[in-house]
Design a protein that fits this description.
The chain starts with 6 loop residues before the first helix and ends in a 28-residue tail after the last helix. The strands form four sheets. It has a six-stranded parallel sheet with strand order 5-4-1-13-14-15, sandwiched between helices. Strands 7-6-8-9-12 form a five-stranded parallel sheet, sandwiched between helices. Strands 2-3 form a two-stranded antiparallel sheet. It is of the alpha/beta class. It is 34% helix and 17% strand. The chain folds into two domains: 7-89 and 204-286, Rossmann fold (3-Layer(aba) Sandwich); 90-201, HAD superfamily/HAD-like (Rossmann fold). Helix 6 (148-159) crosses helix 7. It has eleven helices and 15 strands. It has helices at residues 7-15, 43-52, 68-78, 90-100, 112-120, 148-159, 184-195, 207-217, 234-241, 255-259, 274-281; strands at residues 18-21, 28-29, 38-39, 57-60, 87-88, 105-109, 124-126, 137-140, 163-166, 172-175, 178-181, 200-201, 224-228, 244-248, 269-271. The chain is globular, with a radius of gyration of 19 Å.
Length: 309
């Protein structure tokens, strides 16, 4: 094929019954203050095409700065056809996880982006300043204000038997200004250093996150296409769930990074950006017809960053 995509992968892409999209580096890029979103090439058009064809999708980010509803509102203002329920964060995944396991009191190392979804699910978020010793879990997300008092509260909780969870353990996330440091991995590393306990990830790339996303759409993970920019997050998550793994080169990983993965761990489809993916999917005139559909594993990305929060 001229596109370089195997016929079987292309057929799976066009037959996908639903899509799971990453946010930063895939659909949009923001600045280091987690604001100022701008849509990446082809992202608006492709999601609008899916909406027109009534193909469901969700957006799954590892970010926890805002609640899913707040992120969805920002995306709608940009023209993305997304409802609140189609937006998922690790706090959404955590709420499902904790409810299923009867965990109710959670020490939150983060802000409203975590507190809101947990409280809405009927759980009891606890703040570090409360100095509660009866918490059952510690959940770490975006928390730039983290200090020694917060560290003491978290360690006391873990020493007291609370399990530790993190939104992500990836070190960076993609912004329009280059890569920015995520906080959850750094905070988890400090707590682990003192307590010897390791954090369980509840965001990407864990299979549970994909299963929650698939359940939100109402189809099997194997019928999904998962689209993302990070070789360590979306692609391995897709493989774990039997979904179609689609890589874009507009964020963390360029073509070389995805090609460097082990043969069985590479994306099924690897494209420059969402515009190129739209052409492969069959968007026709919905996207700029001048965009080349040639996929070269030797292209250099315009942006090199890493994604995590």
């Amino acid at each position: 094929m001229k596109s370089g995509v195997p016929a079987r992968a292309l057929a799976r892409l066009r037959a996908a019954r639903g899509f799971v999209f990453d946010l930063d580096g895939t659909l949009v890029l923001g600045d280091k203050s987690n604001d100022g979103f701008r849509a990446l090439p082809g992202a608006l058009e492709f999601t609008q095409l899916l909406a027109a064809r009534q193909v469901p999708f969700v957006v799954l980010t590892n970010g926890t700065v805002r609640t899913p509803e707040q992120i969805a509102a920002k995306l709608r203002a940009m023209g993305f056809p997304i409802e609140d329920r189609m937006m998922l964060t690790p706090a959404s995944i955590a709420a499902d996880y904790f409810l299923r396991r009867g965990i109710r009191r959670i020490l939150v190392l983060g802000g409203e982006g975590i507190i809101g979804p947990l409280a809405d699910a009927g759980l009891e978020p606890v703040l570090p300043r409360d100095r509660r010793r009866d918490v059952e879990a510690v959940f770490i997300g975006w928390f730039r204000e983290f200090g020694i008092s917060d560290l003491e509260s978290a360690c006391d909780a873990v020493w007291g038997g609370a399990r530790m969870f993190a939104a992500s353990l990836a070190p960076f996330y993609a912004t329009s200004e280059g890569r920015a440091l995520g906080t959850s991995r750094a905070i988890a590393a400090m707590i682990t250093s003192l307590t010897g306990k390791r954090a369980t990830v509840l965001g990407k790339p864990v299979l549970h996150a994909l299963r929650v996303a698939a359940a939100r759409i109402g189809i099997s993970p194997k019928a999904l296409a998962v689209v993302g920019d990070d070789p360590a997050l979306e692609v391995p998550m897709a493989h774990r769930g039997g979904a179609l793994a689609v890589a874009v080169h507009t964020g963390v990983g360029g073509a070389e990074a995805f090609q460097a993965l082990a043969a069985g761990a590479r994306p099924h489809v690897s494209v420059r950006d969402m515009a190129e993916l739209g052409q492969l999917y069959g968007a026709g005139s919905a996207l700029n017809s001048s965009i080349s559909v040639s996929i070269s594993m030797k292209r250099k990305p315009k942006l090199r960053t890493s994604s995590a929060r």
